[in-house]
């Protein structure tokens, strides 16, 4: 880490930041000359900082605040090390950190540690998940009362229409996407294909598959930070909120994953299109955990505007082969690349909690040797299926009490997320729809 700063003497300040439950970066600005202290000793701030609501406020009845004296945790650098921050005018570096207790134990309320705990279960069985995420987002002109697509820097026009897989739509914002890919190279974020999506000013960028799920979550978290910051430098907003426009589809964050054994073999591959029994056990785990995990996949009030039938987002608990109306899809193609696509999450998720929920469900199904229900065929929206919770309050209640969730997340994580979301639910009900959009636009 020290070598990185020596090789980049132009860097004037650093940020140390951890992801809170909403995926918001929380941390400090530190002068570069004091960077050695941070890298060797870490830094400190209260445990409660990772358990703030969407406004950045303390949780009123959290035991982390006054009941415990608002004690400090110790935050240490992750293995990612320093990263440039290309969206800022001043040369700066970001140092991702995560939280521990004074005695070195991981803090179970830290989202990154929630994912690490799940990965430890894979490792104990000699297995390694390989993950890739697809991130959808909107470019938005939020300078007026109503949200709209930004004016194209090339044409000077505002095209108010969906442009699915349109090269023209990508080229309209060529300078933004060029800068974005250059910045991903600087930050070592493996951004792959970009497409225009079905929403108004909506785009998707896929990440390359990665055999380190912690790094995959890091990439998603950093990418969201980068896209939002870089868009502002270009004079408009970018948002991963689930549903900014009532009349257009919302943004998802789909996850593809396979699992390797110790010899590097894909344990989902049986040489044919159907996949192995172990793959089906992973599917069964994902199916069983889905209703209780909805709060992770749809963490905000706006999230549930996306989860409606016939709107390119799943609503029923199901799986299928090569079928995008199901919540779990087994893509076609080479058997060596046999994998599971989990399609429930919105773009507004915390990537660490989302991957912990998806992979935690899969390893639980594998541990149990579970068997899934039959795969659906045709339009899953028309099938008689168990349903994903369709409102925020029901999802909060389900997450708190679901026994499958309790096998994935630590009790402290479950308690903290439930307290956070109940507080947000209370205050969001007092706001107008327009005020809610303003809150979510820049935060998620």
The unreliable regions are none
Q: What string gives the helices and strands in order?
A: HEEHEEEEHEHHEEHEEHHEEEHHHH
Pairing-aware structural class of the strands and helices?
Answer: alpha+beta
The tally of domains stands at 2
Question: What is the CATH architecture annotation of the largest domain?
Answer: 2-Layer Sandwich
Shape: globular
Mean pLDDT reading: 95
CATH superfamily of the largest domain: Glutamine synthetase/guanido kinase, catalytic domain
CATH topology of the largest domain: Creatine Kinase, Chain A, domain 2
Query: Which bin fits the share of residues in helices?
Result: 25-40%
* Main beta sheet strand tally, sense and closure: 8 strands, mixed
Number of strands: 14
CATH class of the largest domain: Alpha Beta
Could you please describe the fold and organization of this structure?
This protein is α+β, with helices and mostly antiparallel strands and 444 residues long. The protein folds into 2 domains: 2-107, Ubiquitin-like (UB roll) (Roll); 118-443, Creatine Kinase, Chain A, domain 2 (2-Layer Sandwich), CATH 3.30.590.10. The chain is built from 12 helices and 14 strands. The strands form 2 sheets. Strands 7, 8, 9, 10, 11, 12, 13 and 14 form an 8-stranded mixed beta sheet that branches. The relative contact order is 0.14. The model has no long low-confidence stretch (mean pLDDT 95).
């Amino acid at each position: 880490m020290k070598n990185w700063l020596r090789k980049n003497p132009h860097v004037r300040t650093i940020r140390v930041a951890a992801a809170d439950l909403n995926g918001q970066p929380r941390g400090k600005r530190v002068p570069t000359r004091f960077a050695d202290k941070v890298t060797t000793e870490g830094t400190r701030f209260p445990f409660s900082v990772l358990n703030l609501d969407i406004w950045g406020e303390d949780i009123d009845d959290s035991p982390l605040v006054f009941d415990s004296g608002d004690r400090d945790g110790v935050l240490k650098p992750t293995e990612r090390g320093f990263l440039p921050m290309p969206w800022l005018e001043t040369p700066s570096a970001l140092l991702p950190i995560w939280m521990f207790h004074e005695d070195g134990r991981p803090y179970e309320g830290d989202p990154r540690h929630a994912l690490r705990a799940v990965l430890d279960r894979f490792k104990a069985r000699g297995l390694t998940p390989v993950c890739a995420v697809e991130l959808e987002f909107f470019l938005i002109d939020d300078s007026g009362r109503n949200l709209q697509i930004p004016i194209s820097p090339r044409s000077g026009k505002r095209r108010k229409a969906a442009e699915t897989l349109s090269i023209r739509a990508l080229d309209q914002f060529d300078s933004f996407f060029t800068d974005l890919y250059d910045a991903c190279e600087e930050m070592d974020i493996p951004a792959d294909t970009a497409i225009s999506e079905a929403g108004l000013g909506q785009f998707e960028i896929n990440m390359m598959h990665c055999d380190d799920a912690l790094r995959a979550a890091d990439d998603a978290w950093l990418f969201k930070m980068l896209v939002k910051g870089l868009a502002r430098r270009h004079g408009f907003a970018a948002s991963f909120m689930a549903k900014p426009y009532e009349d257009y589809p919302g943004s998802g964050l789909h996850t593809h994953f396979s699992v390797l054994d110790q010899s590097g073999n894909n344990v989902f591959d049986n040489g044919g299109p159907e996949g192995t029994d172990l793959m089906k056990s992973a599917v069964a785990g994902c199916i069983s955990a889905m209703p209780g995990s909805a709060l992770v996949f749809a963490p905000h009030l706006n999230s549930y505007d996306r989860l409606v039938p016939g709107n390119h987002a799943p609503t029923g608990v199901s799986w299928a082969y090569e079928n995008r109306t199901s919540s779990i899809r087994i893509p076609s193609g080479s058997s060596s690349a046999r994998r599971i696509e989990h399609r429930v999450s919105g773009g507004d998720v915390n990537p660490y909690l989302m991957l912990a929920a998806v992979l935690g469900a899969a390893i639980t199904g594998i541990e149990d040797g579970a068997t899934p229900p039959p795969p659906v065929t045709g339009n899953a929206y028309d099938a008689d299926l168990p349903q994903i919770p369709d409102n925020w309050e029901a999802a909060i209640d389900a997450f708190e009490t679901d026994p499958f969730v309790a096998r994935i997340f630590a009790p402290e994580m479950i308690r903290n997320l439930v307290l956070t979301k109940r507080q947000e639910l209370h205050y969001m009900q007092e706001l107008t729809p327009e005020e809610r959009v303003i809150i979510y636009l820049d935060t998620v």
